[in-house]
Amino acid sequence: MKECEYFERLISDSMDDLLSADSKAELVEHLLDCERCRHFEETLSMQRQLLQDLPEPVPAERHSTRMGDFSIERDKRPLWKRRISVPLPVAAVLSIVMLAGWLFAFGGLSVNKSDELRRDTSTRAVEIIRLAPKSAVKIDNVKSDSLNSRRVI
Amino acid sequence: MEDRDRLDWRLFEEGDQTAFDRIFQRHRRHLLKYCSYMTGNSAVGEDVVQETFMRLLEQKGSLTIRSSLKDWLFICARNHSLNLLAKRRRMEQSLPPVINNDDCRSEMKWLLQEVLGKLNNDERDLILMREQQQYSIIEMATLLGISREAVRVRLFRIRKKMYELGKRYR
């Protein structure tokens, strides 16, 4: 393992053309035997090639739109594990709507309750008033009947 | 290229505006590539390149090119990119250096950009200078004002880190 670290340094140096002929030969010999260092060397060479081939940046507008498309493609996480980002204006509107809903639900209910109470008391009062003359009439009738009966008697 | 740069710069100082356009066209692409991958944003990269050429314009009549105009432009763009990244860190905004493109949809290039995003600014700067801009170790040591041995060691560490990061992403 420690030996491999030494050869990893040699691999890096070889990429920068810093190796002597002897070191080069030593490295080639080691690479024939060591799969781990061969993989390291292949990966570094590939990374170099990819870095050189990285595409030229696209103009800003196209970049931003394509970034959006690409992020959708890349995001394979389940829905409950994704982060949901809400833009500030949308969040503001949502919070206002929720506040209005809350006020309507709780603030409005108390007004309705008092209204209902008022309505209840007023209807009861009307009923009492409505009932009152009838009973009074009834009483009057009874009284008049009794009076009449008395008269008859 | 250096001779053409010197000639065009002299012509520009003598009043030939098209000479400046030629310098711009000659160096814009490689500067934009570096700045965009360094800052992680092609729009920011474009701004940095614009700013670099604005500074070059301001140097009319007073610029003394020691090594080459290419190096002067690169160092100017590099310093500006690093300053922007330092400010961004202060503002605690993170921006992964990912540039999208048609060609970039291959998994390997995507992976590489992810790995670049995990490097710190100095590491990304060094590896881009070496692999993308293809500066030699000696040129890098001269431009950065450090020893060749230091460049060599740092490049090895960065390559090793990129190798480990690449393994983790797979």
Q: What is the β-strand count of chain B?
A: 0
Oligomer: heterodimer
Taken in chain order, the helices and strands of chain A follow as: HHHHH
Largest sheet composition of chain B: none
Look up the CATH topology of the largest domain in chain B: Rna Polymerase Sigma Factor, Chain: A
The number of distinct helices of chain A, counting runs of at least 4 residues, comes to 5
Low-confidence runs of chain A: 61-74, 135-140, 146-153
What percent of residues of chain B adopt helix (DSSP H or I)?
A: over 70%
Strand content of chain B: under 5%
CA gyration radius of chain A, whole angstroms: 47 Å
Mean pLDDT of chain A: 71
Q: How many distinct folded domains of chain B?
A: 2
Q: Helices and strands of chain B: which structural class?
A: mainly alpha
Q: Gyration radius of chain B, to the nearest Å? A: 17 Å
Low-confidence stretches of chain B: none
Shape of chain B: globular
